[in-house]
Design goal:
Layout lengths: L10 H51 L13 H6 L4 H4 L41 E5 L2 E5 L3 E4 L15 E3 L2 E3 L12 E5 L22 E2 L11 E6 L4 E5 H4 L29
Parallel strand pairs: 3-7
Antiparallel strand pairs: 1-2, 3-6, 4-5, 6-8, 8-9
Pfam family, one: N_methyl
Protein name: Prepilin-type N-terminal cleavage/methylation domain-containing protein
Keywords: Membrane, Methylation, Transmembrane, Transmembrane helix
Length: 271
């Protein structure tokens, strides 16, 4: 009689198979992680592009005016103003005015145009977002995408001089920008100091802001973040490249941050 019994794997054969599987896992896991990171970055890029296009649409409906960028810290005045960017631009993106949102959008909750879902808020931030306490009581807020704080720094040099002033802060027209395709309107805000190494000169910058510049630019997407430009496009930029000073692309001044393809202050030196 023929013995049809097949011997099992030897110990050596099993070890070889296990080694091959471990090797494949070691190769595939980083690739899967990179693919997951790329997918998340694409979502953030899409959010930033939506902001860029909504900002341009806003100017078409408001006599070419860019939205009011608001006060640096007086959030009660910002919340009260219909033309504040976070109250006016979301209407072009299928969202309500920011002041009407309750609770405020935070990363990890439902997707929102105001947040990047992979952002990890700073440990110092309360669970309900950053809090501003003013005469009318506390206001909570949180943003992963914010307005460029340098955009209207040099309004005396604006060509049309046809400005809008709200609460002492001026808004300019899109048509006044000399180089719209390279001028930054919004940026992805760093959510956590640890997106940067502790040795970075901008590591300790406060992140409870509704407008910002290169000092608070994100680094959570492959060492960078996304920028929204005045012609309606958005792009990824490396944090290190954006935050390394050089010859100012607008004025020629040394040690500044305007670059030919990333202009913060379109009328003066970004420093």
């Amino acid at each position: 009689m023929i013995n049809r019994h097949r011997p099992g794997f030897t110990l050596i054969e099993l070890l070889v198979v296990i080694s091959i599987i471990a090797l494949l896992i070691g190769i595939l896991l980083p690739a899967l992680g990179a693919a997951r990171g790329s997918a998340r970055a694409l979502v953030s890029l899409a959010n930033t592009r939506s902001w860029a296009q909504a900002l341009v649409q806003h100017t078409l409906d408001d006599r070419d005016f860019l939205p009011w960028d608001g006060h640096k810290s007086k959030m009660d005045r910002n919340f009260a103003e219909d033309l504040w960017w976070a109250n006016s631009v979301p209407l072009y993106m299928g969202s309500d005015r920011y002041r009407n949102l309750s609770p405020i959008p935070l990363p990890g909750a439902d997707p929102s145009i105001f947040t990047d879902q992979v952002a990890e808020p700073a440990a110092s931030m309360p669970a309900t977002g950053w809090r501003y306490t003013g005469p009318g009581g506390p206001l909570d807020f949180y943003f992963n995408y914010v307005f460029n704080a340098e955009l209207a720094n040099e309004t005396a040099k604006v060509r049309s001089r046809n400005l809008r002033t709200l609460s002492g802060v001026e808004a300019i027209k899109l048509g006044d920008l000399p180089d719209a395709s390279n001028t930054i309107l919004m940026l992805e805000l760093r959510a956590n100091p640890d997106e940067l190494p502790a040795s970075d000169p901008f590591y300790g910058e406060a992140l409870n802001r509704q407008k910002a510049d290169w000092q608070r630019f994100a680094a959570r997407h492959s060492g960078g973040g996304h920028l929204a430009f005045a012609d309606g496009h958005a792009a990824w930029a490396e944090n290190k490249a954006i935050t390394t000073p050089g010859i100012d692309a607008v004025t020629g001044a040394p040690g500044a941050y305007n670059q030919h393809d990333a202009i913060w202050d379109p009328f003066g030196t970004a420093d």
